[in-house]
């Protein structure tokens, strides 16, 4: 057996907390149904694509004094997409729930993500297996993957594997795209009268899988605290050496929730928010003007140092870049099979081919970029046909453009400072961290609740645990239909049903907290140093939730 670290030994002892409604077990639950639902947009299109699972009600659970017998069930579980802290606890909660309902039930873990259910690669969990992974980070218990479940052949293979193992329910733990797969699989299973249920769990550190029923996706709490610790460390260094501007790109794909939360926890000098850039139609040059103004004013005050936080997806929200990238995504879908592009011997040849295919204005934008950024924009697309923004070194693009701008200002006598820089990208550092107490509790509850949805005969639902700023015993367990969260979007050049991403609300309380403090933080170095995630100590330190969730739930911040 692998030797365990002292922290892992202690974390394995931690007992996650459950909502009061789930504490008496699956066999003592009563389900309450709300009214019929509809998708967030494109209602007729979504209903046409999901005729068997569309319009279901939101449900909630409460504990009763009655206890019913639950037959033994075989359930499969899949970890899908990028890692997020707490995934192991979702599986542990699911395992404990089904075993408490009936000890004869079995839980199978499909290996390597959705491909596991297609290829029939799996493990059967037992107590010893599960116990080694409780309250730990990562997805290494069964591994993850990004295979999409969307074709008839894949659905048939999945059914055959489930039939072989006697599986009557599948839980897919993933983000918006993974749970779109869950919705498609659930619809196919119902349409073909297989008797197999599908339940999703809301995973993504990006924070963009949320709505009125899903207050936060799991992993967001831990990841943002991890990034905030790292930013705080750099801020302490910057304030000590006083000679570098640090440009810190933060993972988060499209939405800026992670960067915003990390900024609220650390209070850097500059924080860019992608959604604001798009709403204000800020060009790349106007972003440079905004940043250079702060850099110049700080230099005039004798401060040739600072911290700039940049969301991973920024480049896709700059209007001229967004238009160009959308055009480029469509072209790249065609060029993947074009011999002239595939067989091009130099990167410059590829640049030329792309520029000829792009619309005139988009070609100008593409041509204006540094070669390294142009090349990164041509990198392999993600499974949905989109540019992989994590591979675009936006922080280095901004540094290069700011260096040029500041040199111009210096030649005009408007800048007297020094501009020395360091660039960072924080992404993988936060995806597999030991889950915070909040994520350990939340994920365990999501998994436990997933089996409650299964035991009540539901399919095409997402596990939902609400009221998350209250103590765990007051959390509200239930489920939301996956179709309720869907709309139509263009993927690989065609319109597809997908769960709609929740972006930062510029008229919401979270962004307002940043906006109201921006000028003060820009000039006065109000750096906060959160330190490492705290697991042991007062509840006021160990069990607090994110600033984002507190603001969204209208709680008062005592320390901001």
Structural notes for this entry:
By secondary structure, this protein is of the alpha/beta class. The protein has two domains: about 5-60 and about 70-220 and about 435-490, Rossmann fold (3-Layer(aba) Sandwich), CATH 3.40.50; about 220-430 and about 505-550, Phosphofructokinase domain (Rossmann fold, 3-Layer(aba) Sandwich). Helices cover about 45% and strands about 15% of the residues. It contains 24 helices and 15 strands. It has helices at about 5-10, 45-50, 85-100, 115-120, 125-130, 150-165, 175-190, 220-240, 255-265, 275-280, 285-300, 315, 320-335, 340, 345-355, 360-365, 370-375, 395-410, 430, 435-455, 510-515, 520-525, 540, 545-550, and strands spanning about 30-35, 60-65, 75-80, 105-110, 120-125, 165-175, 195-200, 245-250, 270, 305-310, 420-425, 460-465, 475-480, 485-490, 495-500. The strands form three sheets. The protein has a nine-stranded mixed β-sheet, sandwiched between helices. Helix 11 (about 285-300) crosses helix 18 and helix 13 crosses helix 16 (about 360-365). The radius of gyration is 24 Å and the shape is globular. The mean pLDDT is about 95.
């Amino acid at each position: 057996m692998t030797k365990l670290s002292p922290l892992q030994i202690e974390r394995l002892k931690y007992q996650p907390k459950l909502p009061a409604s789930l504490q008496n077990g699956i066999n003592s639950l009563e389900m309450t149904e709300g009214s019929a639902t509809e998708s967030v947009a494109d209602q007729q299109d979504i209903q046409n694509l999901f005729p068997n699972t569309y319009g279901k009600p939101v449900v909630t659970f409460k504990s009763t004094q009655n206890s019913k017998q639950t037959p033994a069930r075989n359930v499969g579980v899949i970890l899908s997409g990028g890692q997020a802290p707490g995934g192991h606890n979702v599986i542990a909660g699911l395992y404990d729930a089904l075993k408490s309902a009936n000890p004869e039930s079995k839980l199978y873990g499909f290996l390597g993500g959705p491909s596991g259910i297609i290829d029939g690669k799996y493990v059967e969990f037992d107590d010893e297996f599960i116990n080694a992974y409780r309250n730990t980070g990562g997805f290494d218990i069964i591994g993850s993957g990004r295979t999409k479940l969307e074709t008839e052949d894949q659905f048939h293979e999945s059914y055959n594997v489930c039939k072989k193992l006697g599986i009557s329910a599948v839980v897919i733990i993933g983000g918006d795209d993974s749970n779109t797969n869950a919705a498609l699989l659930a619809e196919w299973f119902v349409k073909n009268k297989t008797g197999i249920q599908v339940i999703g769990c809301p995973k993504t550190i990006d924070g963009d899988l949320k709505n009125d029923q899903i207050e936060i996706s799991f992993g967001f709490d831990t990841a943002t605290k991890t990034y905030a610790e790292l930013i705080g460390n750099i801020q302490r260094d910057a304030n000590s050496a006083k000679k570098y501007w640090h440009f810190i790109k933060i993972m988060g794909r499209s939405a800026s929730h992670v960067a915003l939360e990390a900024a609220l926890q650390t209070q850097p000098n500059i924080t860019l928010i992608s959604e604001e850039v798009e709403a204000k139609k800020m060009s790349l040059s106007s972003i440079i003007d905004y940043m250079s103004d702060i850099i110049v004013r700080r230099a005039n005050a004798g401060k040739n140092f600072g911290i700039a936080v940049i969301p991973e997806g920024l480049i896709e929200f700059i209007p001229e870049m967004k238009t160009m990238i959308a055009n480029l995504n469509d072209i790249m879908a065609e060029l993947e099979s074009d011999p002239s592009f595939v067989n091009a011997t130099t990167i410059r040849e590829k640049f030329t081919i792309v520029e000829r295919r792009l619309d005139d204005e988009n070609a100008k934008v593409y041509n204006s970029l540094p070669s390294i950024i142009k090349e990164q924009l041509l990198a392999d697309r993600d499974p949905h046909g989109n540019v992989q923004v994590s591979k675009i070194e936006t922080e280095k693009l901004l540094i290069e453009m700011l260096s040029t701008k500041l040199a111009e200002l210096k030649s005009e006598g408007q800048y007297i400072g020094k501009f020395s820089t360091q660039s960072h990208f924080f992404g993988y550092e936060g995806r597999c961290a030991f889950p915070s107490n909040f994520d350990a509790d939340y994920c365990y509850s999501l998994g436990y609740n997933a089996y409650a949805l299964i035991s009540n005969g539901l399919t095409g639902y997402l596990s939902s645990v609400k009221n998350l700023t209250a103590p765990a015993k007051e959390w509200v367990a239930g489920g939301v239909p996956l179709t309720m969260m869907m709309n139509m979007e263009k993927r690989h050049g065609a319109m597809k049903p997908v769960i709609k991403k929740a972006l930062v609300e510029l008229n919401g309380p979270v962004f307002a907290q940043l906006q109201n403090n921006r000028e003060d933080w820009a000039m006065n170095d109000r750096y906060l140093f959160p330190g490492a995630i705290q697991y042991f100590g007062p509840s006021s330190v160990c069990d607090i939730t994110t600033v984002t969730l507190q603001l969204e739930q209208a709680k008062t911040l005592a320390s901001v």
